[in-house]
Design brief:
Beta Polymerase, domain 2, 288 residues, 40% helix, 26% strand, alpha+beta
Length: 288
């Protein structure tokens, strides 16, 4: 049974009011005893089982919130690739947004852009300034990010969560570190620090905008295809073939080894040989 240590928190289930209690008992392995009870009912759990149950409930709530948000925002373009290429309207709005960042002294790079979704990375040292600046840009509204904390995603190694904004129908996704989707579900991690450093050491300007260097962009998009999308769509194939020369650079191989380790050279060769249909099976078979 165990002696009561303290009441943790009241909860409501339907019309019933219950109290979650922490009690003495158990062992180092099982933890203490948890009672969820009122005068008519009591559920007794080991502390470790209570934590598992609580985590499951919280995860279920997160998933339900995600489904509700998707239903509420049916027009919300959550396509991370595979969309139509950026048009003149996209470029105009992107230019207006980035001009405000530059005016405020915020370092940024364009990572990717489609007709409905532009992805940028902002120097993490400028994060607070960026958030203040974005609030002041005309027509810009903050939105929940579909791969963010609200929907149960975790960000490890002190990684800052993604942000999402809408500007006159264009969605702008903001990173503060180049991300990589973890093999652990719903978890993001930053790419290796050497890649993060390259993002800011290399400066490329195209059409008046600061863009991510080709080596970093190739690795980011490859990781997105391998770990998150688990496949290559037509837009991916077009991109990788357009930037095939990147795979010949020594720095590319060096940085690939920071992500794919001993499988890097085989993966690079598969990309050169355009083995998009079999590449994933080979890599995940190797990992197992």
């Amino acid at each position: 049974m165990g002696e009561l240590i303290k009441n943790l928190h009241p909860i409501t289930l339907g019309k019933e009011e219950l109290m979650v209690e922490l009690n003495e008992g158990g062992s180092k392995k099982t933890g203490k005893i948890i009672h969820i009870q009122n005068k008519d009912f009591r559920l007794e759990l080991w502390e470790k089982d209570f934590l598992r149950l609580s985590a499951t409930i919280l995860r279920a709530k997160s998933e339900l919130d995600h489904l509700k948000q998707k239903e509420k925002n049916r027009q919300y373009p959550l396509i991370m690739g595979g969309a139509a290429e950026a048009d003149q309207h996209t470029m105009q709005l992107t230019g207006e947004f980035c001009a405000e960042l530059a005016k405020a002294g915020i370092a940024y790079r364009i990572v990717d852009k489609t007709k409905e979704l532009v992805t940028i990375i902002v120097n993490p040292g400028n994060r607070e300034l960026f958030m203040k600046t974005a609030k002041k840009i005309s027509g810009v509204k903050r939105k929940p990010h579909p791969s963010g904390i609200l929907f149960g995603y975790k960000f490890l190694y002190k990684m800052k969560p993604f942000l999402m904004y809408e500007m006159k129908g264009l969605y702008i996704q903001v990173f503060f570190q180049l991300p990589c989707y973890s093999l652990t579900p719903k978890t993001w991690i930053p790419l290796d620090r050497a890649i993060q450093a390259r993002v800011w050491s290399e400066e490329n300007v195209r059409d008046g905008l600061c863009v991510l260097d080709d080596v970093s962009a190739y690795i980011y998009r490859l990781c997105l295809a391998v770990f998150k999308k688990r496949g290559f769509n037509d837009r991916d194939v077009c991109y990788f073939e357009s930037y095939a020369a990147v795979t010949e650079e020594a720095v590319f191989t060096e940085l690939m080894k920071k992500v794919f380790f001993s499988y890097s050279e085989k993966l690079i060769q598969d990309m050169k040989d355009r083995k998009y249909d079999t590449l994933l099976a080979g890599y995940y078979g190797y990992c197992e």
